[in-house]
Amino acid sequence: MVAKSAFLPATLTELSKQYGDVMTIWMGRVPAIVISGYETIRTALVKRAEDFSSRKIQPVAAMAGRDKGVLMAPYGSHWKHQRKFALMTLRDFGFGKRSLEGKITEECNALVQEILSHNGQPFDLKIMMQNAVSNIICSIVFGGRFEYGDPDFLRLIRLLNSVVEAKPSFMDRLEMIHPVFRCLRFIGTSKNDKMTRMFQTLQQFYREQIEKHRVTFDPNDIRDFIDAFLLEQQRAPEEQAWEHFTDKQLQEVLMDLFVAGTETTATTTRWALLYMMLNQTSRKRFIRR
């Protein structure tokens, strides 16, 4: 019944009226605990946040070795350590501050020139917005922006789009329910294998960037996020560096920043532009501000 529901939240709400604020739905052999009601949700996510903050690593993430970083890593002391370092370092390079406006303005100017180059002809804004957003992230983590036609940059955007747009096949969903279905791959094509290869190619791209930084690294001239991480590798006690500041950890954090930041920000900005195109009053108010 749940699988055939047109609107899952409404169906779960109706079921909670019959079975209570805490109920179990079995997805094959995997139990899914559904909580409803303000007090129950507040107890689980606020009062007992430490107990419920982790998340299950999906098969495709495990296959690609994506158990590090921040997005996919299980909640615990390692996750807290990495999140704290990432936030502090990003703030040092202007994230959430007015000092980042210079990089944003530079990229906006490049975006405007790219739009004007079409001379009033129709074009797809999606790729342009992704390029602009990714380049701002590049300026923070790599120390500089790419030209939109740069082969390395085009490869990065293509891989990011492939990861974001990929959807699991029917067989992949069965694998999430029970591992035994991995033995039945011949029945249908698995997109998990394709996604794993995409992740691994992205990881290789980040490894290349890390090695380029390591060759030119100067502890007295920290240029970007990668340099800050390499510096921490040198400064941290050996045991801590081995646990928290490995190259594998760095490449996964880089992947998190791009995967989580590019598509979401670009899509939100495109919707904002569409809204302003259709709403003249809002557009004028936005320009005034």
How far apart, in Å, are the first and last alpha carbons? 50 Å
The topology string of helices and strands comes to HEEHHHHHHHHHHHHH
Structural class by SSE content: mainly alpha
Shape: globular
So how many helices?
Answer: 14
Main location: endoplasmic reticulum
Protein name: Cytochrome P450 2J6-like
Membrane topology: Peripheral membrane protein
Pfam families: p450
Description:
The longest helix has 32 residues, at 247-278. The chain has 2 domains: 1-53, no CATH class; 58-288, Cytochrome p450, CATH 1.10.630. It has 14 helices and 2 strands. Strands 1-2 form a two-stranded antiparallel ribbon. It has helices at 8-19, 38-47, 49-52, 59-63, 77-92, 101-116, 125-141, 151-165, 170-177, 191-216, 225-235, 238-244, 247-278, 280-288, and strands spanning 22-27, 30-35. Helix content is 65%, strand content 4%. It is mostly helical and 289 residues long. It is globular, with a radius of gyration of 22 Å.
Gist of the model:
The protein is built from 14 helices and two strands, in the order H-E-E-H-H-H-H-H-H-H-H-H-H-H-H-H. With 289 residues, the protein is mainly alpha-helical.
Key words describing this protein structure:
mainly alpha; globular; 289 residues; 2 strands; two-stranded antiparallel ribbon; 2 domains; Cytochrome p450
Give me the secondary-structure topology:
Layout: H1 8-19, E1 22-27, E2 30-35, H2 38-47, H3 49-52, H4 59-63, H5 77-92, H6 101-116, H7 125-141, H8 151-165, H9 170-177, H10 191-216, H11 225-235, H12 238-244, H13 247-278, H14 280-288
Antiparallel strand pairs: 1-2
Helix pairs in contact: 6-7, 7-13, 8-10, 8-13, 10-13, 13-14
